[in-house]
Amino acid sequence: MSTVIEREAQFCAHNYHPLPVVLVKGEGALVWDENGREYIDMMSAYSAVSHGHRHPKIIKALETQLSRLAIVSRSYYTDVLADFLQYACELFGYDKGLPMNTGAEGVETALKLARKWGYTVKKVPADKAEIIACHNNFHGRTITIVGMSSEKQYRDGFGPFPAGFSMIPFGDSAALEKAITPNTVAFIVEPIQGEAGIILPPAGYLKKCAELCKRHNVLLIADEIQTGLGRTGKRLACDHEGVKPDLLVLGKALGGGVLPVSLVLADDAIMSVLKPGDHGSTFGGYALAAAVGMAALKILEEEKLAERATVLGERLMKGLKSISHPALRDIRGKGLMIGIEINPDIIHGRALAEKFLQHGILTKETHRVVIRLAPPLVISEALIDRAIETIKKIFAEVQ
Ligand SMILES: *Cc1c(COP(=O)(O)O)cnc(C)c1O
Questions:
Q1: Do residues 375 and 387 lie in contact, with contact meaning Cβ atoms separated by under 8 Å?
Q2: Residue 46 is part of a domain; what is its CATH number?
Q3: Which atom of ligand 1 is least distant from the CA of 101?
Q4: How far, in Å, is the centroid of ligand 1 from the Cα of 140?
Q5: If residue 25 lies in a helix (H) or strand (E), which one and from where to where?
Q6: What are the backbone dihedrals phi and psi of residue 184, each rounded to the nearest 5 degrees, phi first?
Q7: Atom 15 in ligand 1: residue holding the nearest Cα
């Protein structure tokens, strides 16, 4: 066993259970381990690497900014933040953006905005604001966010949790209407549930939810941290149904595969509830992040990454669907966000992910029965085809 693996196990908290490979280099959709072995990255750091590893334009933006100024905090202006936010606002059609770092911080920001909007605009009585979330959601790991999770392991041992959250089944708009009360300020939803195992709601669900939210004066918060920025074949997964959420949360790929950059977008009617000092983050919107976020969004457009996701996603899906094997229960997804559901009586997700690794494909199981396939959107057709052929071989070995 690699001494690196042993030392990480000794000195790093065991809050993850990594696959046994030590990666030392990445380029585009490929990564290499310490022995020089090549792997196709079908994991993309949970979609943070949609632009591929070390995209030249991202590295250039990073280096250019790094050679001038990295961080001064939001106590001062820099000459890059306005450019980044203007570009993001115009691209997605919002008045303002609030920059943060991790996805969880972006979600917390959206929740705080919704509550403050509820008290100051909707006039919900003090401390009575309610937010509705979905079963099997994944919005991050802070105490508030795991408090609105239905996943036992995410919650166990971390209570007590903040009040004011309720939960409804995902994909059920009738349940949303039933759950809304006069004190409901927001409904938070992932357009496709990623960590839950690539779960797609019925067609028209988001549109229906958006209508219900509008009718009842409830804010729709779309968590597009994983589904956004081209991953599902549109700029946003909400675009598939022509829905414009009141609060849009972006993260992961917004950092171009090099930095944590998240962003909450909203119109002035919501964003203006925040006054100086109400909310912040030392690194939120720092110059390096602004330069990289701007480059990440520009590349998304210039390289038509959403269109690539559609075409390559269909190619990958077609290849996967040509495999017939008793362990395969379902293959589903949109664009390059694909889940393979397996029968755990035949092979466990973890064991299958290890087989993928042995055959040169990086992936990870989620909830024991789903293997995710979400390569960088810049992946070539040839690598998609190589992945399909490899996956065929892998299943041929599964008894
Ligand atoms: C990854 C993810 C988050 C959390 O992002 P972090 O950067 O890990 O805090 C939130 N929501 C969704 C949908 C995610 O996939």
A1: yes
A2: 3.90.1150.10
A3: 7
A4: 5
A5: strand 23-27
A6: -70, 125
A7: 226
Among 16, 139, 364, name the best residue to mutate to test ligand 1's pocket (greatest count of ligand atoms within 8 A of Cβ): 139
How many angstroms separate the alpha carbon of residue 344 from the centre of ligand 1? 26
Distance 111 CA to ligand 1 centre (A): 14
Q: What region does 317 belong to: left with phi over 0, alpha with psi -120 to 50, or beta?
A: alpha
Q: Is the pTM of this model over 0.90?
A: yes
Q: Give per-residue pLDDT as tens, 173-219.
A: 999 999 999 999 999 999 999 999 999 999 999 999 999 999 999 99
Using the 3D structure, point to which of 256, 278, 302 is the last residue of a domain.
Answer: 302
Q: What total of structural domains would you count in the chain? A: 2
Beta sheet of 370-373, edge-to-edge order: 328-334, 337-342, 370-373, 365-366
64 plus 145 within the same structural domain: yes
* Rounded CA separation 79/96 (Å): 17
Give the mutation target among 225, 232, 337 for probing the ligand 1 site: most ligand atoms within 8 A of CB: 225
Same domain, yes or no, for 39 and 90? no
160 CA distance to ligand 1 centroid (A)?
A: 22
Q: What is the pLDDT of residue 59?
A: 98
Catalytic annotation, residues: 138, 223, 252
For residues 283 and 289, the answer to whether their CB atoms sit within 8 Å is yes
The parent domain of residue 373 ranges over 3-55+305-397
* End-to-end CA gap in the chain: 27
Q: Indicate which residue's Cα is closest to atom 11 of ligand 1.
A: 139
State what percent of residues in the chain have pLDDT above 70: 99
DSSP string, 333-355: EETTEEEEEE-TTT--HHHHHHH
Q: List pocket residues of ligand 1, CB cut-off 6 Å.
A: 46, 102-104, 107, 138-140, 190, 194-195, 223, 225-226, 251-252
Angle, helices 349-358/381-397, rounded to nearest 10 degrees: 120
